[in-house]
């Protein structure tokens, strides 16, 4: 039976990946690593620790006999620009530490990359799997270096490491923290709470996005895939839907009235450096990736669930 450790367990992805893995492998086989804060309402095994503390992480791996790590702990793009040093420490040193422990304890590893590995010199439409990678954010730099590190450890030490370049993720459970794509979640909250939203990117900003259920499904699917079929050991392009901020606002407005104003801030420059749409045909061919949620279905589910959540 797999014994899984998830770092960043209470972040945007972890909050939904932990229950999905608990359901699949049983609560006793999933250890959620929280950073400092206690999460008392949590059902399952919880440990508290810092992903840059090798001894603490190794002790947890030994204590629970861990064989697979989903290393999700990371600073996102906007937060990374506020504190590039911290972004480097958490994103790079944290990953290196996990990979070194993976060599020592023969662990399988999942690590999330991002569309942030691309930059202004990358083709912006249908961005290919293999293309120019010149990111201009510290977050993107750490994701690109991290991808190369994952590939290096696979080639050098024969580790089983798998990774996805997530687009902006949209969910009604945990809110994202410090990302450039956060507007695509915040707009739903404000539409329900106040009927108005001031968007921090321009109305014609188009970015690749994905509903969280697809992201979780794809992550589990990649981890289940036959290793011999995987041809990418940096990180797989993974896509679902692309839309402009204005198209998202219009789709929400079809369901509930919302007035959106556009006031681009420093995050606009980051958004402008990223692709508008992604070619994920390699993932589709290698391990059968397929998304389920289009823009309309995602808006239905988001509004339905958030209306209930915000009424509490
Ligand atoms: C961010 O906006 O920083 C993230 C990402 C695209 O990786 N959501």
Automatic annotation (TrEMBL):
Molecular functions (GO terms): L-threonine 3-dehydrogenase activity
Gene3D superfamilies: NAD(P)-binding Rossmann-like Domain
Limits of the NAD-dependent epimerase/dehydratase domain: 4-225
Entry protein name: Putative epimerase/dehydratase
UniProt xrefs under InterPro entries: Epimerase_deHydtase, NAD(P)-bd_dom_sf, NAD(P)_epim/dehydratase
A Pfam family the protein falls into: Epimerase
Any one GO biological process: L-threonine catabolic process
Similarity remark: Belongs to the NAD(P)-dependent epimerase/dehydratase family.
SUPFAM superfamilies per the UniProt record, alphabetical: NAD(P)-binding Rossmann-fold domains
